[in-house]
Amino acid sequence: SQKWVLMVTAQTPTNIAVIKYWGKRDETLILPVNDSISVTLDPEHLCTTTTVAVSPSFDKDRMWLNGKEISLSGGRFQSCLREIRCRAGDVEDEKKGIKIAKKDWEKLHVHIASYNNFPTAAGLASSAAGLACLVFSLAKLMNVKEDHGKLSAIARQGSGSACRSLYGGFVKWIMGKDEKGSDSIAVQLADEKHWDDLVIVIAVVSSRQKETSSTTGMRETVETSMLLQHRAKEVVPKRILQMEEAIRNRDFASFAHLTCADSNQFHAVCLDTCPPIFYMNDTSHRIISIVEKWNRSEGTPQVAYTFDAGPNAVMIARNRKVAGVLLQKLLFYFPPQPDTDLNSYVIGDKSILK
Length: 354
Ligand code: PMV
Fold this sequence. Notes:
- Residues 200-354 form the Mvd1 C-terminal domain.
- It catalyses: (R)-5-diphosphomevalonate + ATP = isopentenyl diphosphate + ADP + phosphate + CO2.
- It is a single chain.
- This protein is of the alpha+beta class.
- It folds into 2 domains: 6-190, 2-Layer Sandwich (Ribosomal Protein S5, domain 2), CATH 3.30.230; 199-349, GHMP kinase, C-terminal domain (Alpha-Beta Plaits, 2-Layer Sandwich).
- 34% of the residues lie in helices and 23% in strands.
- It has 8 helices and 17 strands.
- It has a 5-stranded mixed sheet, with helices on one face. A 4-stranded antiparallel sheet has the order 2-5-12-13.
- The chain is globular.
- The N and C termini lie far apart (53 Å).
- (3R)-3-hydroxy-3-methyl-5-(phosphonooxy)pentanoic acid binds next to loops.
């Protein structure tokens, strides 16, 4: 019969870089100019849920994002679909009486429905969760027998930061040396249980879509910023080693110092781009000042901050108690008003919301 549908649903959290990826050495394969390290968030809060379906009655590949159909014609979607399809295996569902042979996948089409439970393209790394989830769910549907490293290299071709969302905990994306990108993969540095005192608080300064996409921004930075060369060659390699050590030893002072410095340098290379790119706004700058002053007054860092390609603040508190104080401070400096543009998402421990 031609009536059957086979479906797989997967959920993937987003990740936040503490040592940033910014700049590609190959735009098509998405190969970065430096290694990066991230922390994967708790799936409950910022994540993508994707259902992929295959049926002989589908006449083309189609995708819906948050209920709205989007085009799959972009090169990045096509790369991911192609890479997964050519690794598809035999699939058998005895209960439904479905048998798909390896070679059948070339002729079959998929429907993909994806939902983000957070603002899309607002500098909250929605593409990371989205593309990682797409690759993972398609790989499950098509019975692809590759390890997470190989899948991360496929997700990377959808969106660079997506390769890091294939694992929980702390993850390193190794830039690799190969021209074809076979060694540009993500590896897990430590699992989610390794340092579970940390609490991540995200202040959504603005949920509007960012003005300069990361693709355009990176291209302009690579073409015009001298500071980026220095960052990629001289600064990041040392920071990666220091960050790995800080994570291994759960050394919050070093972790916070490196995280804040790297976020600031990433925004400095944006400013060093011609024309300059501004991702942070006045509210972001005020948050930095508040955290810096607080950390200094305590004598040892309590909270680390980091900002991606947008004004939203991601703050990592050393423990639950500190996260509680952080929220009080945020509410004090940014009291909720009808026209305020600051809302907080609390990641990692829901009880703090009460
Ligand atoms: O993977 P992209 O194209 O969304 O770029 C992500 C870039 C940053 O979020 C700013 C940094 C990072 O390493 O995630």
